[in-house]
Amino acid sequence: MCGIVGLLVRNPKMRDSIGELMLPMLIGMTERGPDSAGLAMFGPSVAANERKFSLYSGTADFNWTKLGHDFEKHLSIKAKVEPKVNHAVLTTTLEPDTVKIWLKEHYPQLHLLSVGQLMDIYKDVGTPAQVADRYDFKNFKGTHLVGHTRMATESAITPAHAHPFTAGEDWCLVHNGSLSNANSLRRKLQYEGIEFETDNDTEAACRFLQWRMREGDDLETALNHGFEELDGFYTLLMGTSNQLALVRDPFGCKPAIIAEHDDYVAIASEFRSLAHLPDIKNAKVFEPSPKEMYVWKL
Amino acid sequence: METLKFDLDAKPLREVNQFLHGDASLLDGKSVVIENPNGAHNIAVGLKSDVHVTIKGHAGYYAAGMNQLAKVTIEGSAGSGVAENMMSGVVHVKGFASNAAAATANGGLLVIDGDAGLRTAIALKGADVVVGGSVGSFSAFMAQAGNLVILGDAGEGLGDSIYEAKIFVRGTVKSLGADCEEKTTSQEDRKILADLLAKAGHSDVNPDSFKQYGSARTLYHFHVDNAGAY
User: Would you call A206 a catalytic residue per the annotation?
Assistant: First the structure.
């Protein structure tokens, strides 16, 4: 089991309270995923020439100030580091490849969770309420988000194994389900030069879509290839710079429910997580069909 | 009739269900309203008296599961396994129902006004199910007895490996499962269908607009040519 939640706020006036709207959604999925939780938040964009890098240190006593100083000293370029417990968002104009190489060389213990202009990722072990509290999810502001609560069934319980996973800038994915051919997918993709960070089955699905999009597929074509090659059960929820997308496996083994309202679109594994959204009574609530792609744009 | 109200925002579901499991002589004929169900699982499961329960909103998994005698109305949608293993009584879902509605149900009537998900009436053992909308794939899989009436369409693999249950579909069937075939509707079956349509509030629907499906009976009888397979 696992829980997924997604929220895209259509009403600009409600975007400053997206964190507050989301919190009961994430906590509502605690029974489906009590061991870890994660959130990809699409917030205000950095400047056109900048990118932000979501970093995870593993320990709360990590010296983020020193990292900022080292970065600026070694690379002679400005960087803003905004720490939040054992996560930090580093903003710079430097090319992602250069940043990645520098991080690997000087701070190999850090995990790079995401790169983009809009998206920050936070993920950690603990109940959804604990993780949300640790990173102050309640006060997040933005346009849309993708969240996950995990009940690990196939790989270790670590922050790195928690969802969301990313496959490109401002692109993330969460998964409820299990894949039976994750290992063979991983071997195939490694042969194609795709790098993996964990042995998690969701990461295999994520890297598969990354590979398809690298080969020129748009998201829909990539997902159609996914229906052919991903063997197992899944509801996948994806977030990009301006949209949320959802698919369920052809056997509809894993649940999802959608509420479309003039003010927002909310997605969750179960209605429990949608019940407390404002004016939910007037939302169009429905269950997505298996093997169909649903997309909501900002 | 006396009506009792429970608010699930204020009272734990376990206490509400324990109340509904009380002495039948005290519950028979009573009306119970459950407010703020908010998708909770297991609402009104295991009822065994002639009590009328109205759930004012969306129910989670297994709502009215194992029902006996009671009449349960869900004013919103129902999660997976609504009325699973029902023995008798009536369960009415005014919205849509998720997967495996009425799975293994032995008796009683499940009415779903909207669509139903995959595996509706899987392993049905004698209950009647009327779906106002469409059903997902693999519905009536290995259904042994009872009737499944679908006013809309059916997905893939309808009635796969079916035994003696009867399926009536007014819309289109994406595909039939193994050993499921179209049947000619007898006068007796037409009456079963007409009665079910009336009970489910669809008296205006013409029973002659349905096609009937059932078992070709090639899978479940022992066939000597297959002896080597055992």
Answer: no
Please give the residue range of the domain that contains residue B63: 1-88
Q: What local confidence, expressed as pLDDT, does residue B219 receive?
A: 85
Interface test with B, best of A27, A271, A274 (most B CBs within 10 A): A271
Check whether residue B118 and residue B70 sit in a common domain: no
Would you state the pLDDT for residue B230? 65
DSSP designation for B28:
T
Q: Is the pLDDT of residue A103 over 70?
A: yes
Q: Is the minimum CB–CB distance between A251 and chain B shorter than 8 Å?
A: yes
Domain end, chosen from B38, B63, B88, is at B88
Structural domain tally of chain B? 2
* Cβ <8 Å between A275 and B98: no
**Between chains, do A252 and B60 touch, taking CB under 8 Å as contact?**
no
Ranges assigned E (strand) in B47-190: 52-56, 71-74, 90-93, 109-112, 125-131, 145-150, 166-169, 180-183
Contact between A271 and B118 using a beta-carbon 8 Å cutoff: no
Q: Which letter does DSSP use for residue A202 in this model?
A: H
pLDDT of residue B226: 74
Tell me what percent of the residues of chain B surpass a pLDDT of 70. Answer: 99
Q: Which helix (H) or strand (E) holds A25?
A: helix A18-28
Buried b (16+ CB within 10 A) or exposed e, A241-268: beebbbbbbbbbbbbbbbbbbebbbbbb
Structure tokens at B69: 């005698």
Instruction: Tell me the mean pLDDT in the region A216-220.
Output: 92
C-alpha–C-alpha distance, residues A161 and A150, integer Å: 9
B60 with B36, same domain?
yes
Domain-embedded: residue B123? yes
Co-location of B217 and B105 in the same domain = yes
Check pLDDT > 80 for residue A133: yes
pLDDT at A232 over 80: yes
Q: How confident is the model at residue A197 (pLDDT cuts 50, 70, 90)?
A: confident
**A287 in reach of chain B (CB within 8 A):** yes
Within a domain: B57: yes
- Structural domain includes residue B136: yes
* Residue B66 sits in the same domain as residue B162: no
CB-CB contact of B204 with B134 (8 Å): no
Q: Are residues B158 and B215 in the same domain?
A: yes
Check whether residue B103 and residue B164 sit in a common domain. yes
Which of A270, A273, A277 is the best residue to mutate to test the B interface, defined by the most B CB atoms within 10 Å of its own CB? A270
Beta-carbon separation of A290 and B38 below 8 A = no
Is there a single domain that holds both residue B68 and residue B17? Answer: yes
If asked whether residues B202 and B109 sit together in one domain, one would say yes
**pLDDT tens for each residue of B15-34:** 999 999 999 999 999 999 99
Q: Does the ipTM surpass 0.85?
A: yes
In this structure, is residue B230 part of a structural domain?
Answer: no
